[in-house]
Each structure stands twice: as C-alpha cells, then as structure tokens.
Design a protein that fits this description.
250 residues; alpha/beta; Rossmann fold; seven-stranded parallel beta sheet; 8 helices; 7 strands; globular
C-alpha cells in the first residue's frame, strides 16, 4: 500500500489523534501534519510531550493544539472531541490510538481491571467516533482509523483484557464501515505488533525474535499505513496488519 499524500492533499482537514504525545500517536500526528492537516494532539498524561508535539506540528506550517483528557471517563472523552472542534474546526479524521496495555498474570485480572481496559481502549473509541460522526455525515467525508493490535488474532503478550478490547474494536470498525460507506466515510483498523515504544519496553515478554522479520517495528511504519488509509477513499472495513509477519505465520 502506497501513501500518496502530498503537502496539499489534506489542506483544510482537521484530524484528532488520541494518545498523540508519544509513540505511535505522535508519529501519526506528525505524518498527517506533513500532508497539511491541522492536528488536535490528544493526551492523557505527558503534557510537556504533547505540547512539544503540537509545537513541532505548528513549525511545519499547520495548526495544532494539545488537549488533555482521561478517556476512561465518558464525559471527558466526549468533551475532548468538542474541544478539538472548537479549537480547530469540525473533525474530518479521527485516529483512535489511545490505549492501555498493562500486563498482569491471569490470576490477578479481576473484573474492575478488565473493565478499565475496555473503558480506555474500546469505549472511548466508540464515544469519540459517535461525537465526530455527525459533522462527517453532514460533509459526506470522513476517515475513522482504529489502532488495534495483532493480539486480537493471536492473543498477544499482555493478557485477555487487552486482546478482548482490541478484538472488539475490529467489530466496532466493521459496523461503521458497513453503515457509513455510502456517505463518504471510511473506517479501518491498523493492527501493529511489537512496535518500539515505551509501552513495549515495560513487557519482558516482548522480544524481537518473536517477530519473523527479526526486529521490532517502528512508529513511522505504522503512521505510513494510517496515512495511506486516510488518503484512500475506496478502502474501508479492513484490518491492516503491521506486524513483521507475526500473524500470517502463527
């Protein structure tokens, strides 16, 4: 898949990228800014990093704002979308990237911990999508990207709470793709595996030899796929695996 996004392609479009202060979210925000989209940098922690990301985007010649929210809180998730629209204009592109991936032994995963993971990883994506969808439908143009995980297919190394949240995200994506396609709105999922981020480094089970290509992926490789999906109005309802061959050989 080739990302055919030049400097002017997204001029006038507004993107909200959650979890964008670092890692994959930051790379996606910078990649879309290179295509001239204005960017709302969503974050939960890391104000300094989020402001640095927004500053780098502004230096590239487009608008950017850093907006904090605890996406485990339903009201804050909805208010994040409202704040982004107020600051930059109605959202054209939503990248649901924010998530938590806290590994625990199976015997220590209780109902509250399970639910907390789903609130951040799944429910916030639903709430944000619902919040931005009316404007997309009015304009008959929109791009909804869900950052999933290969764990949805193979179980992964974090735990059942995380795998379940990412698997359910695929179902969520499919509903929007099926029902919004005729209105010019696409929905797709990008599913990475073992990308070199801070989240990865906290898990001792994350080893490059698990990956057939023999290395961790990098955030820019994921961002390039997101950009390609944003540029392409004919691809919808798809999960693109960015996993170094892990899933096809499992």
């Amino acid at each position: 898949m080739s990302a055919k996004i030049d400097r002017m392609e997204l001029r006038g479009k507004v993107a909200l990228v959650t979890g964008a202060s670092r890692g994959i979210g930051r790379a996606v925000a910078l990649r879309l800014a290179r295509a001239a989209a204005d960017i709302a940098v969503g974050f939960s922690t890391g104000l300094v990093q989020a402001e640095q990301t927004a500053g780098e985007i502004r230096r590239a010649g487009v608008r950017a704002v850093a907006l904090g929210a605890n996406l485990a809180d339903a009201d804050q998730a909805t208010r994040l979308a409202e704040a982004a629209s107020k600051a930059l204009g109605e959202i054209d592109i939503l990248v649901n990237n924010a998530g938590v991936a806290v590994a625990r032994p199976i015997g220590e995963i209780d109902a509250e911990f399970f639910d907390e993971t789903l609130r951040v990883n799944l429910r916030s994506a639903f709430l944000l999508t619902q919040a931005v969808l009316p404007a997309m439908r009015r304009k008959r143009w929109g791009r909804i990207i869900f950052i999933g995980s290969t764990a949805a297919n193979v179980g992964g190394i974090v735990g059942p709470h995380y795998a379940a949240s990412k698997a359910a995200m695929v179902g969520l994506m499919h509903w929007y793709a099926a029902h919004m396609a005729a209105e010019g709105i696409t929905a797709n999922c990008v599913a990475p595996a073992l990308i070199d981020t801070e989240m990865l480094h906290g898990n001792a089970a994350a080893r490059p030899e698990r990956i057939p290509v023999g290395r961790f992926g990098n955030c820019e490789e994921v961002a390039d796929i997101v950009a390609a999906l944003v540029a392409n109005g004919y691809v919808t309802g798809q999960t693109i695996n960015v996993n170094g061959g892990l899933y096809p050989t499992s």
